[in-house]
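JOB MANIFEST
job_type = single_chain_structure
chain_count = 1
residues = 305
[input]
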Amino acid sequence: MRWRGNPKSNNIEDRRSERVSGLGGSGGGGMLRLLPMVFKLLGFKGTVILAVCVGVFGLFTGNLGNILAILGLQQDATTSVSEAPLRETAEEKELVDFISVILADTEETWSTLFRQKGQTYQEPRLVLFRDAVKSACGMANSAMGPFYCPGDHQVYIDLGFYDQLKNRFKAPGDFAQAYVISHEIGHHVQTLLGISSKVHTAQSKLSKAEGNKLSVRQELQADCLAGVWANHANSTRQLLEVGDIEEGLAAASAIGDDTLQKQSQGYVSPDSFSHGSAEQRVKWFKIGFESGDMDDCDTFNNLGR
């Protein structure tokens, strides 16, 4: 990507020097306190399945709060935050600069698109953390992966995730990294437009299977919105280089529910999809990228498109 020298966002909050202890703290000790409650609710098999879903599918979840709220596990906890010296490598510094530039570019795109519809885009903040972080959606550790919290309109990313993206999911490249950010920003757009709250309300009245289908539609829409951003980043500011879109498509495919399920359990269970298959995720990202029109991202009425 041609990102160097481009404007940076003022909405980066660096908490990497913070060390959080308590629920969801470093090392996962806080999450372990929830196991008796989870076991009582779900049983042994359900607990194992939940662990797999949180550890694998959670890497690309857009709404951490929804996971905890659905289980009824969101709760206040005593936490403490301490400061530790931040030792930043040159590679990490460059990655932070890259993230700041990409965030600024999403701000430019979505401010323009919202203005064209007579609306105002409220810029989200992006929080960098290490190991564990406290958000309005509760505590989370780095195993959850990047997430968007609608409660505080913030995206949370542990830089270590990008190593997993490259090594575990075999999706290297700077545009693959940008795709992750733009997908989470897509969830912010959904929140501002009232889509996320409508999905959550509808899910409360549906069976688990039907609720999962809505989650898939919501996630695919975020993929499509990521594609819309990529279209404008390229057509307006020429950020993309040859091979960038292929990097994004590879990332979308690598984290499809069917791909992840095959890796974690050896078979595919479509009824438990939460984000969509690899084919669906690639398709909807391409729809957004090719049109550049957010109105084409209506996954709720055109899932079979």
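[summary]
The two ends are 30 Å apart (CA to CA).
Residues 224 and 287 are 6 Å apart (CA to CA).
exit_status = 0
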